[in-house]
Amino acid sequence: MPEPPRSACLLRVEGLTRRFGGVVALADVNLAIAPGEIVGLIGPNGAGKTTFVNLVTGFVGKTAGTVLFADEDITRLAPHEIARRGIARTFQIVQPFSEMTVLENVMAGALFAGRRASLKEAADAARHWLAFVGLDRLAQTAASDLPLADRKRLELAKSLAMGPRLLFLDEVNAGLNSGELRHALDLIHRIADSGVTIVIIEHLLRVVLSVVRRLVVLHHGATLSDGAPHEVLNDPAVIKAYLGTKFAQRHQAELESQRLKYRQQAESAADRAE
Ligand SMILES: Nc1ncnc2c1ncn2[C@@H]1O[C@H](COP(=O)(O)OP(=O)(O)O)[C@@H](O)[C@H]1O
Ligand SMILES: [Mg+2]
Residue 76, class by beta-carbon neighbours within 10 Å (0-12 exposed, 13-18 middle, 19+ buried)? Predict the structure, then answer.
């Protein structure tokens, strides 16, 4: 996929690298994301997806590389300074402040990003986002009492309370049942429709594909493929390293039947026109 020009980028990552001792978790990753894009970041366990988010958001230090956000170099900023500029993320391993209520947890998000001048404003924002994710009834519950699906929603509300322009969703749907998943997907579509740029990390391909218009595949800390979903899913390198040939054959059959359907539609439209 051709890179958007520098000024059209919301996020531009160059040469991003992180080593942990002998392990190269992320190796020289380049990525440019335009405002309003919804990007799926996929790849096997240990590929470096969470590390990528940790580095961009400043939660983990970089071995090398630069991160530009809205043309500003944020490479060396602290997490709260990055949050203040408009990048939020959910945590794959949800760890709410368990001694605090659900409402207080979301307020902490609003205050962390510094968008709210007073506690009252932070509480108002927190209530708004709790209602958005459907947790308003549980505002006064201790966060530690929430079941997994609700903890995932809390995590989402907390990141939204930061008022992000760019949102990283790190496996927010993992462990949800199908009803919960439908609700979560509906929320993600609504967040995208509101103009927030989203990078979604997700294991279930059909879930990613229902949301994104671009896929980036990480493998061993490096970018294996980047482009439109149908191109990436048909990329031999992706099939070999990640999807496996069974998936590719199945996917190929689906694509073929789609093509056939389109051709039949086109032919019958042509017949009608004659
Ligand atoms: N804090 C850490 N200390 C040591 N190794 C780590 C640390 N964080 C991640 N890694 C290693 O970096 C690699 C990438 O991990 P991660 O980014 O969590 O992958 P993913 O999210 O794609 O599953 C893995 O080999 C993992 O073990
Ligand atoms: Mg991860």
Answer: exposed
